[in-house]
Amino acid sequence: MKKIIVTTALFAFTFFYSQKNQNYLEISYGSICCGPSSDKPVISFLKEFKRKYQIKSLEVLIQKGMGREGEYTLYVGTDFLTKNQRSRLVRGLTATVSNQNNNKEQSNKGNVSFDPTVTVSQSDLAQVKNLTIYKK
Fold it and tell me: Which residue in 38, 43, 75, 136 has its CB near the most CB atoms, within 10 A?
């Protein structure tokens, strides 16, 4: 009886921890002189995308402490998206980042950079410092 419980617990533990994303999109927030731009446009797009396509969980990680002025990077997990959803996410993020960079109130605010061809793997993120789950 103990062997069955231990085996079941081990299987459940392995299954639970194997459900993490392996591939992430990278959105970087840089600074010119007066701090980075806000992440509100990107986060509101991600929330709307999640609601529109009825995605249960969209993993977003944040790496803080990358510079003196508060530069940071967001990583968005894409493993649980279909090809169509991923392409729509990339197009939407590209448009959102472009609009945010073009409609800045101050010219000295930082830029947001997003390269849709760059995919960051989980093994790359394992070596990154100051990485946490984004909560807002």
Answer: 75
The residue among 78, 85, 87 whose CA lies nearest residue 119 is: 78
Round to whole Å and give the CA distance between 56 and 19.
Answer: 13
Give the C-alpha separation, 93 to 119, whole Å. Answer: 14
- Rounded to 5°, the CA angle 75-80-85 comes to 85
The C-alpha atoms of residue 96 and residue 1 are separated, in whole angstroms, by: 56
Cβ atoms of 26 and 114 closer than 8 Å: yes
Could you give the CA distance from residue 134 to residue 63 in angstroms, rounded to a whole number?
9
pLDDT digits over 35-87, tens only?
Answer: 888 899 999 999 999 999 999 888 999 999 887 788 999 999 999 899 999 99
Q: Write down how long the chain is.
A: 136
